[in-house]
Task: structure prediction
Amino acid sequence: MERIPSRISASALLFVLALSNLSGVYGNSEVDALYAFKTQLSDPNNVLASWNQTLVNPCTWFHVTCNNENSVTRVDLGNANLSGHLVSQLGQLSNLQYLELYDNNFYGIIPKALGNLTNLVSLDLYQNRLTGHIPKTLGKLQKLRFLRLNNNILTGTIPYSLTSITTLQVLDLSSNHLRGYVPINGSFSQFTPMSFANNPKLILPAIVPQAPAPAPTSLHA
Result:
């Protein structure tokens, strides 16, 4: 009879350990994603010195913000003098709302996996050296309000999938090497030529001049 409580205690302990391991796996997926990003970056100013892979979650790291559930919602690394590639593992940050990587020396392509960040509100990659096409997968970011990819070396056409983002308020694709026609449907109907300036091979929609309003007729003529 004395063995029963000990068996129950052992079972309860195993259950708690199992839950703890599951929690660790969830937390570590974000740690692993951000650490994979860090490991291939050049960081001369050591702004990522606090990014320690041994922690259960990255919420104590500088330049990282988390929600009440200890899940990453912001990565703020603008103007940090970083250089390197954007890694596809960033697409694992499922609760990320702000990805601020502007004004650095990032090069290479924009990973298609960023289209998995369906909670993203702001994607700021401007003033880097990014090349390749704008991924069509970014059209899946249906909560996006700010998309700034200007001042890079992006090529190819503007994906029509972006026009389906009804929440989009600010768009800047200027100063790249984009080509083809600028879409005018969906959310793109609100953006002015400034959003697409300095892309010599882009074809802007023709602006039809409005006829002047007729002069008012005098009642005493």
